[in-house]
Amino acid sequence: MPARPPTPVLVAERLTKSFGDGASRRFALREVSLTLYSGQLALLMGPSGSGKSTLLAVLSGLLRPEGGSVFVQDDGQRYDLWKLSDSQMEKFRLRHTGFIFQGYNLFPALSAMQQLEIVLKWGTGLGDSAASTRADDMLNRLGMNAQKYKKPAQLSGGEKQRVAIGRALVKDPTFIFADEPTSALDWENGQRVIELLRSAAHARGASIFVVSHDERMRPFADVVYHLDDGHLSVEHNPVPLAVAGPSHPSEVAR
Amino acid sequence: MSYALQTLWHDKARYAAGVGAVAFSAVLIVLQVGLLLGLFEITSVPVDHTSADLWVGSQDVKSVDLGVQIPINQHMPRLTEKKGLKGQPEVYLAMYANMTRPDGGMERCFVLGSSLDADAAGAPDVLSAELRAALTLPNSIVTDESELGRLHLKGPGDTAKISGVEVTLVGTVKGMKSLAAPWIMCSETTARKLLAGFVQPDHCTYLLARAESPQRAKEIVAELRSEYPEMSVYTTDEFSFSCRWYWLTRTKAGIAIGYAALLGLMVGAVITAQTLYSATMASAKEFATLLALGIPRRKIYGLVIAQSWWVGVFGVVASVPVVWLLAQAAGAGGAKVVLRWEVVGGAALVTIGTALFSGLFALRSVRKIEPISLLR
């Protein structure tokens, strides 16, 4: 699959979000602005409680900011995410977003294949065989061929997170938001997960936004942001924005 | 296998409570209604065990045990003048009497006196030829074997007194159980002696007849009703239903049993709703992930409703052997449970409907699920 052009992009401007009232009011985001590009893995770091997850929630359409805008560039159109109606927001998330959470949140009763199929069938309305083919294809790319009929209880932590990644990638989203995706994994598995995400950005042209406090992830990021006390800074921007083709030999997800 | 069914199967222990609650409701409804039908079948036993097609009785008689005497000479010609009758109409005596048991105690009984001829319309079909012959002896009686204990009779040969007249038990039958007073079967001659104080010699309680065809029986009933509104005329099926309906409505037993069944349904609904609610909450994170991915909430509603459907179906399936066993046990204990397919099917529909309703109730848990909860 050829790399996508570096669109759509997401532009966040002067985002503000606080929690609590009066004296106990605490700002999670203070006038935060950033831009996400396709084909890029952006890493957001910061101490715990610094507002990292809040920023992820605001960018992904899960939490409404008090101030500022999140503009999405979508097929030549530019719109403010937080001016969409609930149903438009649902459609936006269905079409454009994939999520990976710290917990794997896999249905205990369903096999790895079914965890992916359910997203395709319920979300995109794919038929049984088409959904099955795509889920199978995705799990193969993630190196989960032998585990595809296993249920979560039969999988290791790393394997579960790979299934969760498959679930996020299978509908081919524009954005993938990952909240501490490696925190429950040892480094070997954590490294594999971040490599998969990086290759998804570079090969699929997806825009990946990873929240983590794990310093070992820095080398895998195209851009590193740092959030502290609601203030965002760009720490590191080592590579050009749009990168065509895999940049790492271990990349398995196109 | 659907996701709903797969989830149910995977988490059997959790859903077992809901399935059990639905089964409990189904068992309660089927047994209650079955007992009700069995109970009220008992009220029409004398009618159901004759081979008559037509019953003529006193004005407005609703149940076989409520008939008062009617003049034979006046009523018989009304019947005999009708064409399409098979054989001669018969006299039938049916009335309460007091029995003095062998131990001296008193018991209310219901005397049924009819012709005992081989082709008699009024002779209960449970009487064998031998019993009919034995009943031709003066003052001999037959009753259901289940009544012996109540009447303090040990068996054939025992004697008691009815209306002061000494009677001898010559045998017992099965299938003539009573609700209140034991049915005492005897010849018309014996019945006249036992009911002398209540039925005059030229009167009887009912006139019974056979018709050439069921259709003709209905026609004769319609004709007699319009011509003689002061007497009651029924086909046997109508009279049987009238007896049951009368007791069902007059005793309010149906209402009591209805309440019991309703209570069972409510208990089932609450437990099922709670089971589904907690099961849904247990999967809240998985559902929240799907919502984050943009899966419409209605898909998750659909899953919960499908789960409630399957809980209902499994509950009904689980209730089948229990109902059967309990019905057998009730039968062995002397209480008839009538399992009609309409009742079983109706109970299945009602309980599955209740499970689905519980599912709707559990949807409030899905409404509470928000993807943002995964980031807190």
Strand arrangement within the widest β-sheet of chain A reads 6-7-8-3-9-10
Q: Hey, roughly how much beta strand do the residues of chain B contain?
A: 15-25%
Estimate the helix proportion of chain A, in percent.
25-40%
- Rg value of chain A: 18 Å
Overall average residue pLDDT of chain B: 91
Enumerate the spans of chain A where pLDDT stays under 50 for 5 or more consecutive residues.
Answer: 1-5, 239-254
Strand percentage of chain A: 25-35%
Radius of gyration of chain B: 29 Å
Shape of chain B: elongated
**DSSP summary, beta strand count of chain A:** 10
Helix fraction of chain B by DSSP (H/I, runs of at least 4): 40-55%
Largest sheet: number of strands, sense, barrel closure of chain A: 6 strands, mixed
- Largest binding interface between chains: A-B, 34 and 23 residues
How many helices of chain A does DSSP assign? 6
